[in-house]
Amino acid sequence: MPDLRTVHLTLPARTEDLRKLEIGSVAYLTGRLFTGREGVYKRAVEDGAGMPADRAALGSANFHCSPAATINPDGSYKVGAVTATASFRFAKWLDGFFKISGCNMIIGKGGMTSATYREFFVPNNAVYLTTVGYGTGALLGRGIKHVAGVYWLEELGLAQAVWVLDVENFGPFLVESDLQANSLFERENAKIAPGLEKFYAGTRPATLRRYGETDDKTEEVI
Amino acid sequence: MIPLSSIQRTAEDLMAKAAIEIPEDHLAGLRQCANTEKGDLSAFVIKAMLENYEAAKEDRRAMCGDTGLPRWYVKIGNDARSEGGPVALEAALRRATARATANVPLRPNRVHPLWRTDHNNNVGINAPEIEYAFHPDADWIELTTVHKGGLFGTDYRMLFPGDGIEGIKRFYLDTLIGFGKRGLACQPAIVGIGLGGSKDTSMVLGKQASCLRTVGSRNPDPKIAALEEEFKELGNSIGMGAMGFVGSSMVIDCHIEVGYCHTGGMPMSVHMFCLSSRRACARVTADGRASFRTDPMWFTDYMRRDTVDWERQAAEAAE
Q1: Average pLDDT of chain A to the nearest whole number
Q2: H or E segment at B28?
Q3: What is the pLDDT of residue B27?
Q4: B108 contacts: CB under 8 Å, gap ≥ 6
Q5: Which residues of B289-307 are buried (b: 16+ CB within 10 A; e: fewer)?
């Protein structure tokens, strides 16, 4: 079995703890975090609504996801599995989001670019953790101990609402970015890309071209 | 006459089974990846996924929080009759989808494309998709549900006969690498390729090839079967593994389905059925009983027939 370094972080995470993180380490979280998808980012940042509650109520880690959950007739919640959605779509709102949320941790799928880390994450002492798989929804569901609140349910619906989750040994995640803006995905892509050319030997571009595409396999498509 | 209550009850059970229980053929394929994977990060991901399937079954919770876009494939025996006819059948499948969304629970992913209206039940305009096929000499109805993620791992392109196998290979690699980076396709995946047909048929065939055939199955045309093997090998040799980390686990299996197309064209689609390849199937018989399985057995000789008439039936009738 691969021997990856494992760390346990308490939320809200302290900057000194985040500074010690190395990309490629496995991380488990204990504490409070809240979910956010496009609806939340658009409403909070673009539409100027601000955050639905203060930092103590929401926590300072944002998970790009929404759970497979339902609200029971008595108002309690049934949370099944939870899995991240791809994070690159959120980059355009990040600057404003960090300012109003005070977050220092983003959890999601697929990471963002090192340019985004440098520009928005590092100035806010924030790191990015990626979910694993990406389908470890049942394992993550086990780590949710309590739903501390749901915001913007009426405005955004079940699948887009802000879910505040108290979690324990919630994971696994992989550290994708550190406070130097290094990216695990970009490191891996840089190892793989140079070897791809040979598999294209003998092939040629499709007869009918498309506008706006790239043939440079070292390029990120996000 | 197949009772409507049996159809709806079976459909609800199928929704839960698909969301929670990983099909055996997929699990075996992934274990094979786990045994051969040398990349430490990629191996860690696969191990976590194997643990996740166990957790899902133990807790009876969905294996992935993104429960995809639940949809239906219905195969109707030529002699089958269901209570209330096809309209009642469709209503039962829509009801089962809505009820299972609350009961499993599934994530209510379905929204209006423009107004983002969410009924919180995975039902709406043209949703869930229900596709139909038929089977000769049978009086049962088979229901298959597939919960496939909705965003990444699929692409379509109009190729031309002159592009040849090498053009097909290039588009296959492009799709794998483009969606494989950062693991957007949630690989290792069951890759389905649709070749030919009209443009929409090319998409439909590729999707069905990835979602409705089991790991290890081969196309009956030996040359296409060889291509499936070659593409599986090729996908696993590009140096990319789970989540786009260095490794060898991209393709659990590769399935190709073909349809006759325009003489000037060669449309192609590629689909990747993710690590949480969710499918469940049941045959409901006239007595209302359901027998569950994970192999939809969708692609039959009848489905792939290339003649005007169904000759086997004609031959049998002549005897």
Answers
A1: 93
A2: helix B24-36
A3: 97
A4: A157, A158, A159, B101, B118, B119, B120, B121, B122
A5: ebeeebebbbbeebeeeee
Establish if A159 touches chain B: CB-CB under 8 angstroms: yes
Q: Return the pLDDT at B197.
A: 98
Per-residue model confidence (pLDDT) at position B150: 78
- Global pTM reads 0.92
Enumerate residue ranges in chain B where pLDDT < 50: none
| In a domain? residue A69 | yes
DSSP A206: -
Number of compact structural domains in chain A: 1
Can you read off the two tokens belonging to residue B302? 């009848």
Min Cα distance A192 → chain B (Å) is: 6
Q: Would A132 be classed as within a structural domain?
A: yes
Question: Domain range spanning residue A120?
Answer: 6-200
Q: Are the beta carbons of B105 and A203 separated by less than 8 Å?
A: no
Is residue A61 a contact partner of residue A29, using CB atoms and an 8 Å limit?
Answer: yes
Q: Can you give the pLDDT at residue A157?
A: 87
For residues B201 and B204, give the distance between their C-alpha atoms in angstroms, rounded to a whole number: 5
Q: How confident is the model at residue A2 (pLDDT cuts 50, 70, 90)?
A: low
CA dihedral A26, A92, A14, A67 (to 10 degrees): -60
- On whether any CB of chain B is under 8 Å from the CB of A49, the answer is no
Could you identify the residue written with the tokens 């209503």?
Answer: B91
- What pLDDT was estimated at residue B319? 53
Find the CATH number of the domain harbouring A28: 3.20.130.10
Lookup result for tokens 């309590």? A146
Tell me the three state secondary structure of residue B253: strand
Cα gap A112→A118, rounded to integer Å: 11
The structure tokens listed for A168 are 């324990």
- A33 to chain B nearest CA, in Å? 16
Task: Give the confidence band of A213 by pLDDT, cuts at 50, 70, 90.
Answer: confident
Q: Does residue B41 come out as left (phi exceeding 0), alpha (psi in the -120 to 50 range) or beta?
A: alpha
Give Cβ neighbours of residue B118 (< 8 Å, ≥ 6 apart): A157, A158, A159, A160, B108, B110, B111, B112
Q: How does pLDDT run across A144-164, given as a tens digit for each residue?
A: 999 999 999 999 988 899 999
Neighbours of A180 (CB within 10 A): 11
What pLDDT is recorded for position A18?
98
Percent of chain B with pLDDT over 70: 98
Interchain CB distance below 8 Å, B275 and A139: no
Q: What are phi and psi of A162, to 5 degrees?
A: -90, 115
> Per this entry, what is the length of chain B?
319
The span from the CA of B142 to the CA of A86, in Å, is 35
From chain B, the residues in CB contact with A39 under 8 A are 116
